[in-house]
Design brief:
Largest sheet: 8 strands, mixed
Oligomer: single chain
Helix content: 40-55%
CATH topology: Carbamate kinase
Protein name: Glutamate 5-kinase
CATH superfamily: Acetylglutamate kinase-like
Number of strands: 8
Bound molecules: adenosine-5'-diphosphate, the ligand N[C@@H](CCC(=O)OP(=O)(O)O)C(=O)O
Low-confidence stretches: none
CATH architecture: 3-Layer(aba) Sandwich
Keywords: Amino-acid biosynthesis, ATP-binding, Cytoplasm, Kinase, Nucleotide-binding, Proline biosynthesis, Transferase
Number of helices: 11
EC number: 2.7.2.11
Pathway: Amino-acid biosynthesis; L-proline biosynthesis; L-glutamate 5-semialdehyde from L-glutamate: step 1/2
Distance between the termini: 27 Å
Binding site for substrate: 51, 138, 150
């Protein structure tokens, strides 16, 4: 594949970032993401993997079992996805950005023809300045909503699209030491290449809308590392989080490429 003019970032935004931890999707957060893309667009191209469909739907409807059962979650995702896309489309359009929607599932990454189709579609979109916004196709697959693995979907996307960087935006200043999470002091691990070491830092705790916790982010980083892609876990609740991370003005975790011994 020929070199691209711009660096390609796959940016995953979790439900907690989009709701800023509330019960409502935050237009302000979506605008913040859009403004950063505008500011960076001469040097970087973006593919977004966005959760939030279920969280948006919960704003509008109250289905049986309050969205705990898997089939009810699937229905909520189906109701929420068009609303989520509408909010992205309206907010990004005001900033002069074009959006598109791609719904994918893990099994699409296992079939050669589907993989080619995904790459081709996304390359055409990006070449025409459309920002692909990817979410899991929750009607046909339940893996992600069960295990919180839009993180994994983002990593599979990053490796398939040969991205230069995977950014996972969550609600903490990156991955913190286990001890510091347990005593609420949150000390960020700034740079690491040893994924096994990170696994020992996982605390079995997730936030209100989240599903996979830090475990699924570390698994995503492993997939990206195997594809020779760096992963940054950043606090997406803060304004300007991507730009500040690029300029090293914020605390976040870089999972750098593996070092192979001869
Ligand atoms: N070592 C750790 N460092 C930081 N957060 C951790 C760690 N281990 C577990 N967590 C939990 O993971 C949560 C983020 O994951 P999650 O709730 O799934 O959010 P998202 O919606 O961003 O995917 C944090 O709010 C925290 O509760
Ligand atoms: N497809 C689901 C994704 C669920 C999910 O993985 O959530 P998160 O842990 O916030 O990334 C949705 O849009 O609600």
């Amino acid at each position: 594949m020929g070199r691209r003019d711009k660096k390609r970032i796959v940016l995953k935004v979790g439900s907690n970032v989009l709701t800023k931890g509330t019960d409502h999707i935050s237009r302000g957060k979506i605008e913040d993401i859009g403004r950063q893309i505008v500011a960076l667009q001469d040097t970087y191209e973006f593919v977004i993997v966005s959760s939030g469909a279920i969280a948006v739907a919960k704003q509008f409807v109250n289905l049986e079992s309050n969205g705990v059962a898997i089939d009810v979650k699937q229905a909520l995702a189906s109701i929420g996805q068009p609303h989520l896309m509408r909010i992205f489309q309206e907010s990004f359009r005001d900033l002069g950005l074009l959006t598109s929607q791609c719904l994918l599932s893990y099994s699409d990454f296992e079939r050669e023809q589907s993989k080619k189709n995904i790459i081709n579609t996304i390359n055409v979109l990006v070449a025409n300045n459309y920002i692909p916004i990817i979410n899991e196709n929750d009607t046909v697959a339940t893996d992600e909503i069960q295990f919180g693995d839009n993180d994994k979907l983002a990593a599979l996307t990053a490796s398939l699209l040969n991205a230069d960087l995977l950014v996972i935006a969550t609600n903490t200043n990156g991955i913190c030491t286990k001890e510091s999470v347990e005593n609420n002091t949150y000390q960020t691990i700034d740079e690491v290449n040893d994924i096994e070491m990170l696994e020992n830092e996982i605390v079995a705790e997730i936030s209100s809308h989240g599903t996979g916790g830090m475990k699924s982010k570390i698994e995503a980083a492993r997939i990206a590392q195997n594809a020779d892609i760096e992963t940054w876990v950043i606090n997406g609740l803060k304004d300007n989080f991507v730009i500040n991370a690029i300029q090293n003005k914020t605390l976040f975790t870089k999972i750098v490429k593996a070092v192979y011994n001869e």
